[in-house]
Amino acid sequence: MISFTVRMTFRPDDREEIAQVLRELTRLSRQEPGCVSYVPHQVESDPDTILIYEQYKDQASADAHSASPHFAQYAIGVLYQKMLERSKEMLTAIA
After folding, report:
1. With contact defined as beta carbons under 8 Å apart, do 91 and 6 qualify?
2. Distance CA 70, CA 30 (A)
3. What digits encode the pLDDT tens for the residues 22-79?
4. Structural domain total, the chain
5. What's the pTM value of the predicted model, to 2 decimals?
6. Listed residue (49, 26, 24) closest to 39, CA to CA
7. Pairing, β 35-43 against β 2-9
8. The pLDDT value given to residue 64
9. How far is CA 69 from CA 9, 14, 74, 76, 81, in A?
10. Domain at 21, CATH number
């Protein structure tokens, strides 16, 4: 199992567009055969920060997500263009 979080920060003016893009990206990502979980969150204390929790059955599934047409359209085409900061944390399950 591959698990990680992606944290991105955006401008306040982009908040609604980012939410719409994330809704569509989430819908399509959850349809991928190797996607176990794809859950975007808005950070309550900082509404311009998004945290996405992602799980894939294996590395090949995570790679397929990154190579998908919807990732190119929504993540690379919109989110990456508008984000101010981005960080990714790989996770290891304890139990």
Report:
1. no
2. 11
3. 999 999 999 999 999 999 999 999 999 999 999 999 999 999 999 999 999 999 999 9
4. 1
5. 0.94
6. 26
7. unpaired
8. 98
9. 23, 23, 9, 10, 16
10. 3.30.70.100
Contact assessment for residue 78 and residue 25, using Cβ atoms and an 8 Å cutoff: no
Boundaries of domain holding 73: 2-91
In this structure, are residues 39 and 93 in contact, taking their beta carbons and an 8 Å threshold?
Answer: no
DSSP 9-21: E--GGGHHHHHHH
Task: Specify the amino acid at residue 46.
Answer: D
> What does the angle CA 30 – CA 35 – CA 37 come to, to the nearest 5 degrees?
75
Alpha-carbon distance of 14 to 18, in angstroms, equals: 6
d(CA 89, CA 95): 18
Residue at token pair 């294996």: 58
Helices (H) and strands (E) in the chain, counts: 4, 4
